[in-house]
Amino acid sequence: MEPVSFTTILTQFLSSPLWGWHFIVPTKISEQFIQGKDRRVICTINDKVTLHCALMPNKDTWFIMLNQQIQKKLQTPLNSEITVSLIKDDSEYGMPMPDEFREVLDQDTAADKYFHALTAGKQRSLIYIVSKVKNTDSRIRKSLAIADHITANKGLIDYKLLNEALKEYNKM
Fold it and tell me: Which residues span the domain enclosing 108?
């Protein structure tokens, strides 16, 4: 599938403190990327920022959320027009798997089994925890902490305990 480009406005949900900056994706465009429950896309904004994300429903429209990190990279003010390009994300996890995390899972069969038994969203959350760090050694420590946590908890994730484990592994 070829990338689909369009212009839209960078806006913010005013009625909800939970939801922040986002942009509307026209329904005709959204429908091209939705396959059942799979709504994952790779989105490029203003030829500056590329992110793996999902089309989110809101009544009769679809939108894509932007976190603060993406907002800062964009350097585009709220209510500005942006150019967006979307392609279908056919990757295994809906985002790139860090090499360090892949290697840890390859070496720890129990952690790999528990990781792959998690929901796709939980898998992406754990991948994000590892991938948001730029330093290779830190990515390895985070990968080890996650593998140990899901193995010790037989595939269940207690995010409070996981955060404590991540802090402990960072001290190593």
Answer: 99-170
